[in-house]
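Schema walkthrough. Field components (list of strings):
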Amino acid sequence: MKKTLTRTALAAVLALSAGGAHAVVKVGFMLPYSGTYAQLGEAIENGFRLYVQEQGGKLAGQELQYFKVDDESNPAKGPENANRLIKRDQVDILVGTVHSGVAMALAKAAKDSDTTLIIPNAGADAITGPLCSKGIFRSSFSNWQPGYAMGPVAAEKGYKTAVTISWNYAAGKESTDGFKESFEKAGGKVIKHLTLPFPNVEFQPLLTEIASLKPDAVYTFFAGGGAVKFVQDYAAAGLNKTIPLLGSGFLTDGTLKAQGASAQGLLTTLHYADGLNTPRDNAFRESYTKHFPKLPPDVYAVQGYDAAQMLAAGLNAVKGDVSKKDEMRAAISAATIDSPRGKFTLSKAGNPVQDFYLREVKGEENKDIGVAVKALADPARGCKL
Amino acid sequence: MDPVIFLIQCLNAVQYGLLLFLVASGLTLIFGIMGIINLAHGSFYMIGAYMAFALQPLVAQYLGGGFVATLLACVVLASLLGYFLEWAFYSYLYRRDHLQQVLMTYGLILVFEELRSIIIDNDVHGVGVPAWLQGTVSLGGIMTYPVYRLFISLVCLLVAGLMYWVLTRSRLGMMIRAGASNREMISSLGIDINRLFRIVFAIGVALAALAGAIAAPVSSVYPGMGHAVLIICFVVVVIGGIGSIRGAFLAAMLVGFVDTFGQVFFPAAAGVMVYLLMAAILLFKPEGLFKQG
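Field assembly_structure (string):
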């Protein structure tokens, strides 16, 4: 009697696990949970979970099971960390990451194992360029985009010449190249591209160089600690009074408190801004603040939130059956995402086609003062899809 | 190049070189006199900067003091920290080989970074420039130069002069130099070598922390700020000759000039200029510009 019972139980368990192989969707977060970008990782995960919670904790009727790996923003450990999620945890969907170098490794691992990947930040052009794939999507931006969006703004203000300055690494080059492309298309001229090795922050010689070149404007890409110091040094050198400073949005995102008075009035371009004041954004901000009172809603939270929306669009199309990969991916690719930043669609290479806002620093906010470029699509150079 | 611009760039170079000297002098003292490879030196710079950030409101509230009081508080606390660390960790390293020194001091870097993350956070923070140093000087009508940067240079020069005087003219300096060249001899003369080393180490830590604290208003404080400083400091120490204060001063100036003008004239190779300089000097002077002394 006892034996049969055990057998029945065993059979039932087996039947359940076999029939319910897709009763849960396994989502793998590969994000920075330690180091400089820890807060960005947290904001992304918060945003993702917030959307799922708003849908009653399920997407397309499926429970989500989360697996987390701290990628430490360390590209050297990228492949190993990616494979922990892909091989050990056998996740259905990968979500990650912030650092572009790690994202490249992640994209390669996802491609090799044919796992669907949604990138909630890393902007390396190559991911939706030469490395593009049907299973890789981005809910954020390509580095080229904010730079390109600033060019027409600068030209419209009547600037004829500009100097670009950034660290001598891929993100800086991609961003300043984007600016150069659109600024010169609009009749301007980038007279010099200044660089310094990453992560040096001794800007004084280059600021002197800018003072001697006397351009009409300066376009820059810096982020984090470097952004704080550059903006402060630029103001201390008195250059902000004579040569306006323009930047990609990361120059003034999450750094305004430290930059203080020196950042006031700076113009930057990004796909999100404070004070958009649309019903969609207000609802998002209210809900986010209620769930995570310690962290103010920011562009990273939005990118995490939209990553979940993209996944939802895919899962809804296949009624939660993640084994129908092609159908799911086609649905993500064709989706219109109702993002807090405004509605966006995805390009063929999987990068958002979205509006870029012109923002002005007022107090500790990047206030929206209009759209710089509408529905800007990354050219996806080198992508063969 | 326009002569005015050239002069401004020279000023940039001198100012950068002086700050480098302030950090590197502590490293060369510890390295040269105690024979310890102290990878945690960059962390002491970071600690100084974070102390300036965290102590400023406290000092203002309880001591009613301003910026100078904060700097003094940083130096005193850093000296105590150095004194304690030497007693607790570094004193066990003198007779060990360099690999073990590197391992332990690298461990300390991780500990300090983690503590920083727990006690403060992972954000970037700005430190205010005191009101009486907020002005700027106009340079040839081209750009302005913050008075605070000139103040940094002045403090660095003062410290350099003071160190030179202590090492060459004072009794403490005599003991330090003697201890560096022959440890056994000086202890047989009745001088407490352990205590002497503890003091030297405390001074080294205090110098690094002072550099961090004084640079904080222009550099802002951020995670990992000690790493970049550490590498360039080792370059300065190696070029100058291990243990030589005079060498460190000259090397810091050289590095300041090469780095500044490298960025202007050879932007593509700016990252390697300083290391090329080091390689070239080591080729002809394998022990650095000055031998110990």
